[in-house]
From TrEMBL, chain A:
It comes from Pseudogemmobacter lacusdianii. It comes from the Bacteria. Residues 619-684 form the MrpA C-terminal/MbhD domain. Residues 130-407 form the NADH:quinone oxidoreductase/Mrp antiporter transmembrane domain. Keywords: Antiport, Cell membrane, Ion transport, Membrane, Transmembrane, Transmembrane helix, Transport. Residues 69-114 form the NADH-Ubiquinone oxidoreductase (complex I) chain 5 N-terminal domain. This is Monovalent cation/H+ antiporter subunit A. Residues 699-795 form the MrpA C-terminal/MbhE domain. Pfam families: MbhD (PF13244), MbhE (PF20501), MnhB (PF04039), Proton_antipo_M (PF00361), Proton_antipo_N (PF00662).
UniProtKB/TrEMBL annotation, chain B:
Keywords: Cell membrane, Membrane, Transmembrane, Transmembrane helix. It is found in: Cell membrane. It comes from Pseudogemmobacter lacusdianii. It is a multi-pass membrane protein. This is Na+/H+ antiporter subunit C.
């Protein structure tokens, strides 16, 4: 039990660090580094506690139900392999934090760096510990996105932006491929649980979809681990700050790909296809990247290609997939992380203290920084595979696998030769790194005088290099048990224990190592001087730059093709777009219904009431009239629109929908007022527009009329057929039966809105709030057309007095209506749960009450006496509705679960008191706020214009004077 | 009754769609309003026509769902009325702002 919680805490720690780091001030380097470092160190301690059960061969699991209906649980699991990997990530993470503390300059924003770095660590741990393959894909994408943010940390530079974008596109696409492969894999196995997938290797390999799964899976792994031909993003990512490179390209990001390869090798591996694809790609990458690395002039560029090459080595081992190869792969993952992190940090120190990373300028630095130089030399030795350093042992194991393991294919037979070739170049570029930077003549072209870095900045490098040496001399004692444990958890519990030692006698792998060391030195001696003067690319491979191909694709797909498609199909006019939408809607309805739409055998029919028919005769005239008048007689159109709305409202009342009738009536009033307020700002339109009389305009109108009639006729026939079919019992019956017993209200429509489907209503009022604020902010920047500013005669009359002078009696009545309407609103609100009404209707009623006051007097008079703070009403409403929903958590129920009972109030009697009422109060408050905000914002425009005009006149007078 | 109501839905929808395809912003906003009436009535009518039996329940006891109006379409339409009101308000303000910025009330922001 305790271990389960520890697993959850372990994953949560880096995210907690990210949140903490994001809150510190932009200059608090030490604070952010301390907090993050301490939390990661806590993680290491947790790992220490977990070591006991892990070393017994136990697999720890911890599961939180997340989306059970999709089979998606938040499952974390840890075995020996994951334990080792997590320890590596946390250990190097702490060292990187210490290093970054001194590396970043004072002007670099602190919270962003540490928060991203820690969130990245969290995503990495989540990926490693995922016990569910879908969750694994999610964390995998998360590392891609966070690495994008980290690589683009110095986003002022073009290189950083390009590098970040390239990394995101390549690894993000790979992540999508991985997600697809995981989905198919889950379908084949019948579960998304990692343990069940890992146990189902035979089923997966026998499936006809196996090649598809494998290729998609490998696309994900290869893009992440920078295997050819997807390697080019990694050198581009060198624009990141060096601590980021040291972390991403040693222990984390790129290792995620090889982690998955090793993890899934028992499931997807052991086939010829796997061997050819994985080992083939790995060997190609190993050889070609090691050759390119030799030709790079940028220190970090050399290290980047060396990283790609070493990842190729691990990939090749995963492709071989024998138990020895898996052990060697895991060992090399660790070793490479250790020496490459130290080398990146050393390169960063050189860059920091000498001002450049260009190997053609750097020279003889041993005089200025002897300690850093010595550390870098040892780390490079590990990279080259010099005996008694950690890189040597895992490389020997790789040679042994390449030479001893056989499946008889041509690729297998050529493995030792390619391995030796790559090792030769590895030795050559390692020597070049050391020889050009630390030895040779006094440097002359450096921007700064180099010196040793602060000792604390060097400490991480010292620790890592010490690890290289200790592991290199005593591999069996230090890492032996842990590695075997990790290998057992990948290959199965009966994997034999392999004793890792430095000396295996004089055998073939040792010969290969010695050949590589000697030949590598010779290659450097022969080529070294020429490389420095040559361009940054090996002679033969210049034409084959994957990055350039990628850029051409990017240009094609993000610029050239979209523009062509837009030119062919796009229009910037609204009318064709709307016409297309309407036509598509007609087609979408016609396609499935054509020929199927038929009358029910025994159609439902209710007796025709002549009053209803007459009412709709008026309604139809209103609708057609509104359509007729909307262009030249806007006011008439508004009135007719109101007529159609009123008939709709009466229909609701007629056909047993009192709630709808109330709401429709109130909304109708507010809409009409809004439209009337808006009319003032539209251009004058009394005369005919000349173009309208021409033939094309007439043809257009006829075409649109046909579209409209077809759509209307179609909708009418669907409605008729549907209405006459007998009703199939549906979910509505459940609502009717349970509204009172479950929701504590007798008005089912209201109970559905505030209880059963309260979440929908919550979303709806949020939309209303957003619209209110949008309206308000759009109008704040409003500039009316010049002709609208001039006053009409009737407006001048009105502005001089107020409405009370013209219409005294109505204005007094309007003022007296205010309390009456508030009582009406309260009445509507309180009966809402049991009888037609509710928070929405009450809110609109009160806003109409306010509106009446604005109508009865001029704005200045009313605002001197009455203060409405619409935004506060809105905020209060949203908070109240949200808090009612969250309140259900306190009692252990899901969000927005309501509780209902009746309370006895003296004099009034039994009153329903449900928590849904509180929610409804939130709805009320928000609707009131939003409606008033919109109406007042619109009404205030006249006032603002008046002020603008006064200012203009005053300025004009001043000028005249 | 069914025939009258479906005819009404058709006329409202046709008027609305015709206006939707017109070039002036005010026409489009009136069209949207008419179309929303049509769509609301359409959704509402999916619960079939019931007269004199609103979905107000007795307090407890057996409930025969067949003797009440279907509450579900009503709840949906109630939401739809609110949302269409919000859309109308938003569109009205966009219309006014666009008229102020471009000097025309054509939907494309410029006279053809």
């Amino acid at each position: 039990m305790i271990e389960e919680n520890l697993l959850l805490i372990l994953v949560g720690l880096p995210f907690a660090a990210a949140v903490a780091a994001s809150t510190v001030s932009t200059t608090a380097h030490s604070a952010a580094a301390w907090v993050s470092g301490l939390l990661l160190a806590t993680g290491l301690m947790i790992l220490g506690v977990l070591h006991e059960p892990i070393s017994q061969g136990e697999v720890l699991r911890s599961s939180v139900r997340w989306v059970p209906s999709l089979g998606l649980n938040l499952t974390f699991r840890m075995d020996g392999f994951v334990w080792l990997f997590v320890a590596l990530v946390l250990g190097i993470g702490i060292l990187v934090l210490l290093y970054a503390r001194y590396y970043l300059s004072k002007s670099d924003p602190v919270p962003r760096f540490y928060a991203f770095l820690m969130a990245f660590t969290g995503a990495m741990l989540g990926m490693l510990m995922s016990g569910n393959i879908l969750m694994l894909a999610v964390f995998w994408e998360m590392t891609s996105i966070l690495s994008f943010l980290l690589i683009g940390y110095w986003h002022q530079g073009q290189a950083a932006r390009d590098g970040a974008r390239m990394a995101l596109i390549v690894t993000g696409m790979g992540g999508l491929a991985l997600l697809l492969s995981m989905l198919i894999l889950g379908q084949i196995v019948g579960s998304y649980d990692l343990d069940r997938v890992l146990a189902a290797g035979d089923v997966v390999r026998a499936s006809p979809l196996y090649p598809v799964v494998l290729i998609l899976f490998l696309l994900g792994c290869f893009t992440k681990s920078a295997q050819m031909p997807f390697h080019f993003w990694l050198p581009g990512a060198m624009a990141a700050p060096t601590p980021v490179s040291a972390f991403l390209h040693s222990a984390t990001m790129v290792k995620a790909g090889v982690f998955l390869l090793v993890r899934f090798s028992p499931v997807l591996g052991q086939t010829d296809l796997w061997f050819y694809l994985v080992t083939g790609t790995g060997m190609l990458t190993l050889v070609v990247a090691s050759i390119i690395a030799l030709f790079r002039h940028d220190l970090k560029g050399l290290l980047a290609y060396s990283t790609i090459s070493h990842l190729g080595l691990i990939t090749a081992l995963a492709g071989i997939g024998s138990t020895g190869a898996i052990l060697a792969a895991i060992f090399h993952i660790v070793n490479h992380a250790v020496f490459k992190a130290s080398l990146f940090m050393a390169a960063g120190i050189i860059d920091h203290e000498a001002g450049t990373r260009d190997m053609r300028k750097l020279s003889g630095l041993m005089r200025y920084m002897p300690v850093t130089g010595a550390l870098a030399i040892i780390a490079s030795g590990a990279m080259a595979g010099v005996p008694l350093l950690n890189g040597f042992i895992s490389k020997e194991m790789f040679f042994a696998e390449a030479a001893d393991w056989h499946n008889g294919t041509w690729l297998d037979n050529s493995l030792p030769w390619f391995a030796t070739l790559a090792a030769i170049f590895a030795v050559a570029y390692s020597i070049r790194f050391i020889a050009t930077v630390f030895f040779g003549p006094e440097p002359t072209q450096l921007p700064k005088t180099p010196h040793e870095p602060p000792s604390l900045m060097r400490r991480p490098v010292e620790l890592l290099v010490l690890t290289c040496m200790v592991v290199g001399i005593l591999p069996g004692l230090t890492l032996g048990p842990t590695l075997n444990l990790a290998a057992q958890s990948v290959s199965g519990p009966d994997t034999p224990y392999t004793d890792i030692s430095v000396w295996h006698g004089f055998n073939l792998p040792l010969v290969m190592s010695l050949v590589a060391l000697v030949a590598g030195a010779l290659v450097y001696l022969a080529l070294g001087a020429r490389i420095s003067k040559a361009p940054e690319w090996p002679p033969m491979l210049q034409q084959l730059r994957a990055q350039r191909i990628f850029e051409r694709f990017l240009l094609m797909f993000t610029w050239v093709l979209p523009r062509q498609i837009h030119r062919l199909t796009g229009t910037e006019q609204l009318q064709p777009q709307l016409r297309l939408i309407v036509l598509l809607a007609i087609a979408a309805a016609a396609a499935p219904l054509w020929g199927v739409l038929r009358q029910a055998p025994a159609p439902l029919a209710t007796d025709l009431n002549p009053g209803f028919a007459l009412m709709w005769l008026v309604g139809a005239v209103c609708a057609i009239g509104a359509a007729w008048m909307a262009k030249y007689h806007r006011f008439a159109a508004v009135v007719l629109l109101g007529g159609a709305g009123a008939v709709t409202c009466l229909t609701f009342a007629w056909i047993s929908a009192p709630d709808l009738a109330v709401t429709q009536l109130l909304v109708e009033i507010v809409t009409t007022v809004l439209l009337l307020l808006g009319l003032r700002w539209l251009p004058k339109r009394r005369e005919e527009i000349e173009v309208d009389k021409l033939r094309p305009a007439k043809l257009r109108r006829i075409r649109d009329l046909i579209i409209a009639v077809v759509a209307g006729g179609g909708l009418a026939s669907i409605a008729y057929v549907m209405m006459t079919w007998p009703l199939i019992p549906n979910v509505g019956n459940w609502f009717l039966r349970n509204a009172y017993s479950e929701g504590g209200g007798t008005n089912v429509v209201n109970v559905i809105l505030v209880d059963f489907r309260a979440f929908d209503t919550f979303g709806e009022i949020t939309v209303l709030a957003i619209v209110g604020i949008t309206v308000f902010s759009l109008l704040r920047r409003f500039r009316p057309a010049p002709e609208s500013i001039a006053l009409t005669q009737s407006q001048v009359d009105l502005e001089e007095g107020n409405l009370a002078d013209v219409l005294l009696v109505p204005s007094v009545i309007m003022r007296w209506m205010f309390p009456v309407m508030i009582v009406l609103a309260a009445y509507l609100f309180f009966r809402g749960h049991d009888l037609p009404g509710g928070g929405f209707a009450a809110g609109v009623t009160i806003s109409i009450a306010f509106l009446l006051q604005y109508l009865a007097h001029d704005v200045r008079w009313i605002e001197a006496r009455l203060t409405v703070l619409p935004t506060r009403w809105m905020g209060l409403g949203l908070l109240m509705a949200g808090a009612t929903g969250v309140g259900a958590f306190l009692f252990g129920y899901p969000f927005l679960t309501a509780h209902a009972q009746y309370v006895n109030i003296p004099l009034i009697g039994k009153v329903p008191a449900a928590t849904a009422m509180l929610f409804d109060a939130g709805v009320f408050s928000l609707v009131l706020g939003a409606t008033v905000l919109m109406l007042i914002a619109l009404a205030h425009q006249s006032l603002r214009i008046a002020r603008m005009r006064e200012r203009d006149t005053a300025a004009a007078e001043k000028e005249a004077a | 009754m069914e025939l009258v109501l479906s005819g009404a839905i058709g006329i409202l929808a046709a008027s609305g769609i015709w206006l939707l395809l017109r070039p002036r912003t005010f026409q489009v906003i009136v069209g949207l309003c008419l179309l929303s009436y049509a769509v609301n009535l359409f959704i509402f009518s999916m619960g079939r026509l019931t007269f004199g039996a609103p979905a107000i329940m007795p307090r407890g006891g057996f409930v025969n769902p067949a003797s009440y109006a279907d509450p579900l379409p009503q709840a949906l339409v109630l939401t739809a009325i609110v949302i269409s009101f919000a859309t109308t308000a938003l569109f009205l303000v966009v219309l006014i702002a666009s008229r102020g910025l471009t000097g025309t009330d054509h939907v494309d922001g410029k006279e053809p």
